C-alpha cells in the first residue's frame, strides 16, 4: 500500500500513522495486494508500485469503537479481530503467546490486532 505523504494527510509514511487513515486509504485504493506481490521494503521514499489488478482483499467499511473494555470485548465477539492502539512500552519484554501487560499508559503508540481477551490459562503452542 502506498501511504500518501500529500499535504493534509494524517500519516507519515514509515514514520507512523493512524489505523483509521490506513482503512480510509484502503477503501480509496480499492484493496490490498498479497505481501509477496508488494513486499515491505522498510523505506518511505520511492514510486508507488501498487497494481489494482493484483488486489486480493478489500475493506467495505470500518468503524471506531468505544474505549470501554466491556464494549471492546463485545465488539470483538460480534465482529472478530479488531485493530487497536496500545502503549507498547511493555512489548519490549514480550516473548510470545498471550500478552499480560502490567504497565499501563494512556499514550498510544502502536497499532496491533486484538484477537482475544481474558486472563484464563492457555495451552502452550
UniProtKB/TrEMBL annotation:
It comes from the Eukaryota. It holds the Pfam family Peptidase_C1. SMART domains: Pept_C1 (SM00645). One of its GO terms (molecular function) is cysteine-type peptidase activity. One of its GO terms (biological process) is proteolysis. Signal peptide: none annotated. The keyword Phosphoprotein does not apply. Belongs to the peptidase C1 family. This is Peptidase C1A papain C-terminal domain-containing protein. It comes from Quercus lobata (Valley oak).
Amino acid at each position: 500500500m502506498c501511504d500518501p505523504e500529500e499535504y493534509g494527510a494524517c500519516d507519515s509514511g514509515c514514520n507512523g500513522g493512524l489505523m483509521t487513515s490506513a482503512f480510509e486509504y484502503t477503501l480509496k485504493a480499492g484493496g490490498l495486494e498479497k505481501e509477496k506481490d508488494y513486499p515491505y521494503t522498510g523505506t518511505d521514499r520511492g514510486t508507488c508500485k501498487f497494481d489494482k489488478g493484483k488486489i486480493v482483499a478489500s475493506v467495505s467499511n470500518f468503524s471506531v469503537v468505544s474505549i470501554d473494555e466491556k464494549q471492546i470485548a463485545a465488539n470483538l465477539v460480534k465482529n472478530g479481530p479488531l485493530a487497536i492502539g496500545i502503549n507498547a512500552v511493555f512489548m519490549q519484554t514480550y516473548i510470545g503467546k498471550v500478552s499480560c501487560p502490567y504497565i499501563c499508559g494512556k499514550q498510544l503508540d502502536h497499532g496491533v490486532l486484538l484477537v482475544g481477551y481474558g486472563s484464563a490459562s492457555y495451552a502452550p503452542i
